[in-house]
Amino acid sequence: MFHRSAPPGFEGNYSDFPSVQPHMKAMTNEGLEADIRATYELLRNDNACNGRFASIGFCMGGRVSYLANSILPLGAAVSFYGGGIAPGLLDRAPRQNAPILLFWGGLDKHIGEEQRSAIRDALTKSSKPFVEALFSFADHGFFCDARPSYNPEAARDSWTLTTSFLAGNLR
């Protein structure tokens, strides 16, 4: 995701966030949209997905999944603790093309109830289908086993919900 600003071979590290932050700040919606469309065209032309597409993203990728759902003809989208959807992408709620599954950690200090509520309200106001799951006992990054916030129960249960959601929407 940092190919526009990071040197070739760059690998971010959870224990060295300052080295990643400049690349995160350099990302734009326009650049992400170009990458999303390029990936979609590559997969569509390869016929790898049999015409059925979904997007799943974690953390910043959760935001990207929401963005992708606003520009592509997806069958479903999944956003795990998508930071920056509120307030940055609330105007994309009316453009969500497919049902979206949103996961949140109740202990997440980065994405609080105010942001979650703003997203919920924007999707509801736009009459867009969504499912929201809040794991009250989990923190931001609960799915990532490389982080101290990893929560195996929340990861297991959220993946069960994800596979069921995708099975129901990618027919």
Summarize this structure as a short list of keywords or feature phrases.
Rossmann fold, four-stranded parallel β-sheet, 171 residues, 5 helices, globular, 4 strands, alpha/beta
What does this protein structure show overall?
The radius of gyration is 16 Å and the shape is globular. The chain has helices at 17-26, 29-46, 60-69, 113-125, 152-169, and strands at 54-58, 76-80, 100-105, 130-135. 40% of the residues lie in helices and 13% in strands. Strands 1-2-3-4 form a 4-stranded parallel β-sheet, with helices on both faces. 29% of the residues are buried. The chain has a single domain (17-169), classed as Rossmann fold (3-Layer(aba) Sandwich), CATH 3.40.50.1820. The mean pLDDT is 95. Strand 3, helix 4 (113-125) and strand 4 form a beta-alpha-beta unit. It has 171 residues and is α/β, with parallel strands linked by helices. It is built from 5 helices and 4 strands.
CATH superfamily: Alpha/Beta hydrolase fold, catalytic domain
The residue ranges in which pLDDT falls below 50 over 5 or more consecutive positions are none
CATH fold-level label: Rossmann fold
- Report the CATH C-level class: Alpha Beta
The count of domains is 1
Assign the structural class, choosing from mainly alpha, mainly beta, alpha/beta, alpha+beta, or little secondary structure: alpha/beta
Please tell me what the overall shape is: globular
The main sheet comes to: 4 strands, parallel
Strand order of the largest sheet: 1-2-3-4
Radius of gyration: 16 Å
How far is the first residue's CA from the last residue's CA? Answer: 29 Å
